[in-house]
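Explain this fold:

***
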Amino acid sequence: MDATTPAAGTSAPPPGLDTMNVTVKIKRYDPEKDARAYWAEYRLDVRPTDRVLDVLNQIKWEMDGSLSYRRSCAHGVCGSDAMLINGVNRLACKLLVRDLGSSIAVEPIRGLEVVKDLIVDMEPFFDSYKSVLPYFVNDDPEPARERLQSPEDREIFDESTKCILCAACTTSCPVFWTNGNYVGPAAIVNAHRFIFDSRDQATDERLAALNQPSGLWRCRTAYNCTEACPRDIPITKQIEEVKRALLWRQA
């Protein structure tokens, strides 16, 4: 059983604000001194409208400066603060305390090696992303202005342009947990964005990259990825569309 540290103290917002007392359990791990991960517990007063990221900041800045996690924009755009919060992959900067209650458990996302505390090694995730050629390819002579596209053609892949590479989808996938070589839903979504772009010319190369033992066909349609996406991308639907595109290409 994981050890649990005693509460590191309490902290409170300024007087006069509506507050609630919460208990926050964080899975901690420092490879320089810990043989294994353990749960650390903190009790503090926060506002119901605080985000989980605000709570983590309060713990780090006022209670325990050794806590480590990633964050940047704090507005759900950069995707750097994806975490397992009360058992579900979420962005810490978007999830409100009032939606979780007085007991909050925070862990690193699964399937990637933990570097320290809530920080994981994202390199394998980005290697998979890069393998699908996630950039525009067109070798035709450059037009005088821009490469035009109809609104209808744009609509086909518009939702897949919303990916912020937070890895919440990929690290919620049970196939990825058991097979770290699986390219994962995030890479397939980013392949979708270009495969269905009428101006792009590298569809065959992307489909070939996905038609590998660790590629597209590993998906078992668990829907975890769609439920975890903070941008509401219909990931499972897009994976099925790429599967059909590959089958039609081979027919």
Remarks:
- The first strand starts at residue 4 and ends at 5.
- The longest helix spans residues 235-250.
- The chain has two domains: 4-119, 123-250.
